[in-house]
Backbone:
């Protein structure tokens, strides 16, 4: 299933002021392709993910369209969005432990979408959850533990299992490999790659440019709520836009030149041109 984001703008109301988090973002997620969304902290990456899930806070105002296939889901009521979450669209959030109930075992929480969305009884739902968590590398003993009893990598595997429990078509992964050890990071990366082979449409939100370059098909570079450049992910370290170049130079590496000075904010269109000075629309 394709997901089209058209001129999406999100503002947060803070007292008498408005803070623009996303500014006319246009992006398409295609089945079988991984699109990486990269940028600095505060550039609007997580806001975009939450907007796609209909999970923006009450002080957010949104304009534009989010098309799931031919259906505009940007203005659905909460009850209507609930029918899409988990079953059609799912998100793996960053800061994993905070998204689990600390007094329920992980297997019961992973099983919840099966109970509430599919009407399964608790016991068969838990059995299916245990099977999927096993595919994510968690033993039955680990799956029956409480969140505080597991490592960050194990929590991330459980979050991924919860997102996949209803086999959704659209997956939004917010920093899925952050702060993980090398083996867990490799495992999660392989799971994501296999999901793309199953024709899932995947948005990979990450600070890790190496992960984006090696795992994604395309990359969108976000700065102050606007997409500065859209390019093949393999070209992230050889971009055309000066902001993307500065972002790549700031990324730790043996030959990195860490320099973010003098970055201009004008957008780069697919033909390599800038629409106007300062990034303002034509």
Residues:
């Amino acid at each position: 299933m394709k997901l089209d984001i058209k001129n999406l703008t999100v503002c947060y109301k803070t007292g008498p002021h408005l803070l623009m988090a996303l500014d006319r973002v246009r992006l398409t997620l295609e089945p079988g392709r991984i699109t990486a969304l990269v940028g600095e902290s505060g550039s609007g990456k997580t806001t975009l993910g939450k907007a796609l899930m209909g999970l923006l806070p009450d002080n957010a105002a949104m304009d534009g369209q989010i098309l799931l296939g031919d259906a505009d889901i940007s203005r659905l009521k909460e009850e209507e969005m609930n029918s899409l979450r988990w079953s059609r669209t799912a998100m793996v959030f960053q800061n994993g432990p905070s998204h689990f109930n600390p007094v329920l075992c992980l297997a019961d929480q992973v099983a919840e979408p099966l109970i509430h969305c599919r009407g399964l009884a608790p016991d068969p739902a838990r059995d299916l959850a245990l099977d999927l968590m096993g595919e994510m590398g968690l033993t039955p003993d680990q799956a029956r533990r409480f969140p505080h009893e597991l490592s960050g990598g194990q929590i991330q595997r459980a979050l991924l299992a919860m997102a996949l429990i209803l086999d959704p078509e659209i997956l939004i992964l917010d920093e899925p490999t952050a702060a993980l050890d090398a083996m867990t990071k490799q495992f999660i990366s392989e799971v994501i790659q296999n999901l793309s082979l199953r024709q899932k449409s995947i948005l990979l939100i990450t600070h890790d440019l190496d992960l984006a370059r090696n795992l994604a098909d395309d990359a969108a570079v976000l700065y102050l709520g606007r997409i500065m450049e859209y390019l093949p992910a393999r070209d992230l370290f050889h971009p055309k836009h000066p902001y993307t170049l500065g972002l790549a130079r700031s990324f730790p590496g043996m030959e990195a030149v860490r320099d973010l000075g003098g970055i201009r904010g004008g957008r780069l269109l697919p033909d390599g041109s800038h629409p106007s000075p300062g990034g303002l629309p034509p």
About this structure: Residues 136 and 157 are 6 Å apart (CA to CA). The two ends are 32 Å apart (CA to CA).
